[in-house]
Amino acid sequence: MDWKSKITKVEPNHLVTKGYKQEDLIGNISFSHVVYLLLKDKLPSKEHGKMMDAILTACIDHGVTPPSAMASRIVASGGVPLPTAVAAGVLSIGDAHGGAIEKGAKFLQDGVLRAKKEGKSIEDMAKILVSEKREKKERILGYGHRVHSSDPRTKRLFSLANELNITKDHIKLSKEIEKELEAQLGKTLPINVDGAIAAIISDMDFDWRLGKGFFLIGRVAGLTAHVYEEEKDFKKMRKIFSAEVGYDGPYEKELP
Amino acid sequence: MDWKSKITKVEPNHLVTKGYKQEDLIGNISFSHVVYLLLKDKLPSKEHGKMMDAILTACIDHGVTPPSAMASRIVASGGVPLPTAVAAGVLSIGDAHGGAIEKGAKFLQDGVLRAKKEGKSIEDMAKILVSEKREKKERILGYGHRVHSSDPRTKRLFSLANELNITKDHIKLSKEIEKELEAQLGKTLPINVDGAIAAIISDMDFDWRLGKGFFLIGRVAGLTAHVYEEEKDFKKMRKIFSAEVGYDGPYEKELP
Amino acid sequence: MDWKSKITKVEPNHLVTKGYKQEDLIGNISFSHVVYLLLKDKLPSKEHGKMMDAILTACIDHGVTPPSAMASRIVASGGVPLPTAVAAGVLSIGDAHGGAIEKGAKFLQDGVLRAKKEGKSIEDMAKILVSEKREKKERILGYGHRVHSSDPRTKRLFSLANELNITKDHIKLSKEIEKELEAQLGKTLPINVDGAIAAIISDMDFDWRLGKGFFLIGRVAGLTAHVYEEEKDFKKMRKIFSAEVGYDGPYEKELP
Amino acid sequence: MDWKSKITKVEPNHLVTKGYKQEDLIGNISFSHVVYLLLKDKLPSKEHGKMMDAILTACIDHGVTPPSAMASRIVASGGVPLPTAVAAGVLSIGDAHGGAIEKGAKFLQDGVLRAKKEGKSIEDMAKILVSEKREKKERILGYGHRVHSSDPRTKRLFSLANELNITKDHIKLSKEIEKELEAQLGKTLPINVDGAIAAIISDMDFDWRLGKGFFLIGRVAGLTAHVYEEEKDFKKMRKIFSAEVGYDGPYEKELP
């Protein structure tokens, strides 16, 4: 054996993924729960399964405004296969787009661990973390949104987390930070949908390194719809997006 | 307005996707059904919803053997963010990998339309199509598999399609073609999982141009698991895959 | 040996590419001529070498207007590594963007072969091809441009091809088609830069399947400059491009 | 104006890149020098121009062994357009593949600045830097290679830098570090090609953030050759690379 993988056993006429035969999963387990199985090595409880569906659904689409949808539509307009255009959108998922789930989850997971280690309450830890970040003049990721002051996805996700008894220290810490930001800054900087997902997957005990994974698994559905719409309803190389861009480079001159 | 889209209405604190508020979809509709909504403009019936889960689950993973998983793991090993590596796998979904869903669905949809137009039975149409393809020495996509002689996913998907009363002319045509291939070739060339999905989404009345979309939406879950495993458990730039490659280019010589 | 490649022999402390030691190529052969070597299996003549430089330079950049530059800048703005953003631009190089080089070269190469086979002059072949395309109501790729009525790159490339004695049947056919389009359509549809490159690489005896390759090798230089400028001078997730997009999807409603 | 760019002015029949009309650049300035212009805002001196050619040529190809070539060939084998497959290879250029140019250049540029600030010689600074890295148990990037103990590209690049009077403090520091590593580790860890390029572009006064850019601009030529060869000479979905991969995931079981 060159190396080993924990994902799928492939033998002739026999496929086993994370312990279950694929023909057993197909038709018996919903897709989102199979995604959970792939990322967590076990099938979800009823509550975790429902939350998983909610998280992926909260990521599906935000119209043509985010970099991912813009990139996918522009690339589709060059006349390429659907997966190539969808992949271009996935490429834009980075530290500034969807990245607050990964970095936010790490921040919350570190914070909760530190509170335990230092024997501090979640409230006190929130104060410490906000103060430290302000001293370093760094942003806490997962707060504030370009469009929404009260994001309907965030409210719904947190209320579900309560209903399903998922809310624990990470969600608490994330809300205490929101309060503390308001107290220290004198203005509201509400948890955004990335921040909410960061807190919830942390209380579901997911590795923060999967943060961008949740986002992309949900978002490829929307990106596929965008690329399909672009291919079906629009002409290639049309003017999709526009910008008036001036030139302020070196002045025009002759070759030396 | 520069142009219009049918996917998501984005207003401050208000997100409507294909007619439904996102906060209504989140927690009430399972993710796979939301995917159906995105691709079909309406929520699925109970039967279509179940079939949708089954189709996406049938696409999740096939170990490290297909180009998509190989590309994702290799790119991950270069030391890049998770979405970059997942996207590399998506790029490999082309005419030869997952493409049989798209082309197979087009072939079946054209075949069923032609049978109706020419007043022929599905059985007769299968004979005609197989003969025509053999004359042109072209393969019919969606039959035969590198690893499986009796793919467990195919059997399960078709039996579900029967249970859920989804089986109609496209699935019938696809099975008649399988019989006819055996009769004309004298050997079994069983419908593979791509071929099965091509037939089923056609009987669910999906546009064949979405064929690769189903495959990629399901497969990104597996690719995410592969990239996560590669990042977590293995060293960068390790020897993941190997080949003994000789050089048979121009013979070695001095510059002119 | 699993298989053989004609590109590079890799042995410890010994690298031979298309017959030449890399340490001989480095510092002795200019980069564009090494590119020629990679694509043509031999070093260029003085004339071909100069033309190669001209072709790659003609592809370097067209500001932020084409899909490739737009995609690269948008993806860069998501906060990803430079190569990820450059690659996103490369993905947009498709049948509608840069694709006229590939398809145009095939069209010209087929046309010249057919003229020889049918014993026709290049002038007559141009008339036949334009008429056939008009009957089928298909566009001939490589004529007309969104921005330029007299593209400075095209004129310069053709005049160089004359100076360097590269002009042969393919360039002739391409110019005859331009005349014939004007005669039959009653308006000017000038050869664009893609069309010019298609004709020139055909007269240089390159395989048409490399058409998009020339374009991308030149354009990655411009895309790298765009991504670097975006990373250095601009904030992440800024509004780079804009569109007023309305929603005309299913009307807003409650869940069933 | 929404914003400004320093790269290309686009007006009807008029294209100016970094101050020069494109029709002046085409046919008069070699491609590699135009690349220099794009990245440095001015045309190179004769010496810098020659070094630029050498650097890009040193990056062209390393056979099918690196992640970029493997990814491109695998993705090509899925049956996708040439640019999609080339882009997949570009995606693998990350911190572990080509990344030593970027990080190595930053390390050397920081080191030279620090030597000046602290009034230390390059020799002393090399000792300090190696000791500090060893204390932190961190690798210095750009030393050692998987295949070559005496990389022919490195030797050639450094000897050219001497001939062309480019060698200054950064190259000196890089060689002093090599000596110091040998002294402190008791074994040779030679500067590899990435490390050499990192030092040379630093002495040419390039921004370290362009490190991966040099590598990718050179390497896309080789990747294009690989994808072309794969498309031309091989069957789709062939077994290009292989690995014996075992399954050590959750044991096989029935659904709960």
Q: Report the major sheet of chain A.
A: 3 strands, antiparallel
Q: Bin the helical content of chain A.
A: 55-70%
> What value does the Rg of chain A take, in angstroms?
22 Å
Strand order, largest beta sheet of chain A? 2-3-4
Entry keywords:
mainly alpha; homotetramer; 256 residues
What does this structure look like?
4 copies of one chain form a homotetramer. Chain A has 256 residues and is mostly helical. Helices cover 56% and strands 6% of the residues of chain A. The first copy, chain A, has helices at 22-25, 31-40, 46-58, 67-76, 82-91, 99-117, 122-135, 152-163, 169-185, 193-203, 211-233; strands spanning 3-5, 8-11, 14-17, 20-21, 245-247. The first copy, chain A, has a 3-stranded antiparallel beta sheet. The longest helix of chain A is centred in the C-terminal third of the chain and has 23 residues, at 211-233. The model of chain A has no long low-confidence stretch (mean pLDDT 96). Chain A is globular. The first copy, chain A, starts with a strand and ends in a 9-residue tail after the last strand. At the A-B interface, strand 2, strand 3, helix 1, helix 2 and helix 3 of A face strand 2, strand 3, helix 1, helix 2 and helix 3 of B. Strand 1 (3-5) of chain A pairs parallel with strand 5 (245-247) of chain D, so a sheet runs across the interface.
